[in-house]
């Protein structure tokens, strides 16, 4: 989205101090329901985020976010940091945060005090990804569907949606105004599931016996794939012998006529319908970005399956959706890049308060 985007992500090596505008880095984190990633960031001499000391941890191995953050800082050599930006898989509506697909709950201010830092900003994980969009390069994206030309001025002005299945189903909006991003946080993955045909209606009936309310996330996520596989097996009256998303997708790859393959095809189709609906809701005529672990694993299925057909199938708005590009983000650590982008104004503000 930037006219000449540069590669700011530095991987897992220490960044030379000469490239940084401040001595103390900002702690950044990206926490989902399964894994958490931490790193350090500071702006380089051209104002872009530099990221280093990247680590990833299974959240199940730690009793709290504070314990995990302390463990990371110790592992990273106890850097002098006074600020942090953490992206979490949860709605951020006040001081108390409850992770949607994980039992952790914490107070932002208590966490700040526990870590001994002056400033802590907590943002939604997909809001972080949206903030990273302006820093992506063409090689960080994989087009799903037709290669559509960008709308005029879309590099600096436009409306976009970022969504994708992982442990849950995240959604965020992005408006670019003169190149500056305005991120719209949401919990759109919890919108109610809308079946598009009689088979999906049977899937909904099956899931209504399991859940008091069936959101789209109950179908389009890692656990959603398990739900879809169980529903397919029940509808087709065959034993449900597979229990993990990884084994379901592996079986689908090996046996394209199996219930596992039908479950994967269903997920791709439902994701396509949902992505089109969200694009309509946000007016995201300039593009839809897909991310998340499930997206990465099922990218070949998304490319050849019903995703794009269902994305465009919006009745009187089909011609409009036909012109909206859909792209999968393939860049690693995208959430950390977004947290680093959100940290830039904090760093600049703190530097402005330092007497010369």
Q: Which CATH C-level class of the largest domain is it?
A: Alpha Beta
Structural class: alpha/beta
What oligomeric state do these chains adopt? single chain
User: How much strand?
Assistant: 15-25%
The Cα radius of gyration reads 21 Å
Number of domains: 2
Helix content: 25-40%
Main sheet: strand order: 8-13-12-9-10-11
In the CATH hierarchy, the architecture of the largest domain is: 3-Layer(aba) Sandwich
In this structure, how is the largest beta sheet organized?
6 strands, mixed
Order of helices and strands: EEEHEEEHEHEEEEHHHHEHHHHEH
Annotation field: number of helices: 12
Give average pLDDT, whole number: 88
Do you know the CATH topology of the largest domain?
A: Hexokinase, domain 1
Characterize the overall form: globular
Outline the low-pLDDT stretches: 1-7, 11-22, 349-356
In total, how many beta strands?
13
CA-CA gap between termini? 34 Å
